[in-house]
Structures
1.
Amino acid sequence: MTLAVRRTAFPSRVTVVVLLAVAAGLVFAHRLYRTAEISLSGAVLSVISSYGVDVVPERQTVYFGLGSDTPLGLRMTPECTSAFLVLPLIVVGAVMIALRPRIQSRVLFALGVAALAVVVVNQFRVLTLVGLVDWLGVDTGYYWGHTLLGSMVSVFGGAAALVAFVWLATRK
């Protein structure tokens, strides 16, 4: 009895290598990713805030509430970035394409939707924190916005992105 192993088509192999390279890039260049992510947060806050906002990209920090009674700087640490929620999706997507090359386009579409969802959820988490600091003050608002509610937003948003990824990648 022999088991036939289907060889992955060349374009699919290239896609797998590119996805794994992107995953490695997220690990090794996470500082650059965090800089982009905090810059996006600063842009969003500038649009919705009536107080000053300043981004210091080299420190991955956004300062908000400038000119208010509750100014605060928020640094995007490696633990708080969406990169490490996107990373497993990319790796799983690469494995799915390697095992079933014919679903490559569905997996890539699902990966794009899920990655965008994770980034949006993380931005919502930052906005939640900013809103709670503005509403409840720095100490209480930061505690509720970062430790409790912010973590719940990340967990539920990440779970929803994972469900969407699996559903979109595997549906016929």
2.
Amino acid sequence: MRLLESVARHEHGAPAKQLAREAGLALPTAYHLLRTLVHEGYLHREKGLFFLGEAAERLSRSGAQQKRRSTIADALGSWRDSIGAPVYYAVYRGGEIEVECVADTPGNPAVEEWADFRETGHAHAIGQCLLSQLDAEGRKDHLDRYPVRSVTPYTVRDDQTLIRRLESTGRMQPVIERQEYALGTVCAAIPLTLGSTAATVALSMPSHQAERLLPAARRLQSEIDTLMGTLAVSISI
């Protein structure tokens, strides 16, 4: 690991003797480890210099993804505690709705995914918020694969009604949904459009607390704005 760290510090590569010295290893030991790391793909050697290999770069990408998830999870947990409601983070990636992180508590549990979130984007605030950020072609592609269908008695009835609703959604305004996905639950989703990524942070509440929903969504949006720089970096990784 010390050898990998030493190589990572040298963008233009470094020879074995220098790496051994920096890692505090005897030269024969360093040579043996460097050959092993090259064989396993963690390093590659070119003209006597060692560089990070593809396997090490995969580790780096995995580390970046873990950092992203940790950053988002910390933010969601903070918002959950300050607002007193479950908070969700989701993105639209590769034509699919992906709920990547949820922060809830036993006293304020998240909505149970009783019908696949990916297939029922028309019914819940998360899906409606993400679909509202797509262009017409993207929405059509999604609805061709996942047609509108009744999930509860309050679910939107057909594609055209849904599309009109999505088109009328104000830019960067919360999307509100009341019992369309789960009876007894109301939800709000805040749009986050960063580059080509459609994303959202959402919250849910029992329907008997519906009067709290919009004020809580406004507060969530305000708190998101204060952390947008950090969140933007996390989403873009």
3.
Amino acid sequence: MNVLTDNFSTYGEGFLGTLELTVYASLLALFLGFVMASFRVAPVGSLRVFGTVWVTVLRNTPLTLLFFAVLLGLPRFGLVLPFEVFAVLALGCYTSAFICEVLRAGINTVPTGQGEAARGLGMSFAQTLSLVVLPQAFRSVIPPLGSTLIALAKNSAIAGAFSVTELLGTYKTLNELGYSIVWTFVWIAVGYLIITLAISALFHLLERTFGVAR
């Protein structure tokens, strides 16, 4: 226990850093994932192509490479932001590709007659998607959305290699101070477990409240 009690502030700072990365990147990923899923089912060909390219590129790019591209590449084009913001951009954009496909799979489960009926009532594509299709699709994709955001929380560990304060990076400080590397990682794992279990509990509650009855 002394590894935790003697370094509680260090662990706390890393835990809060990971929590902030997870929350902000999740919000960005959900927003972009929704936009790209809308693009992929849009009646406009150029939007479908853009959405397809976005998903294909990001899903097939290693996350570490994306971190290098964002944190080291964007400043060369004059975009200078805190590394934490760059980390959120990298995590959010990467995860949005997976959320897009989860939402698109949910959209495909909605009977086509629902959309046709909405259009028959004079609704636009945006109204049909947001008011008719997506609310039904969301109910069926709650579990995979939760799994995707849990993966995001664990992927945030990569940010520590780019001078971003997060939980996994605390091992460097504690290792230099001579603490047991085994117990250092045990308490790091506990921190990640708390975050992932919280996300799991949230989506379990959403599934019980809004999910499709099986």
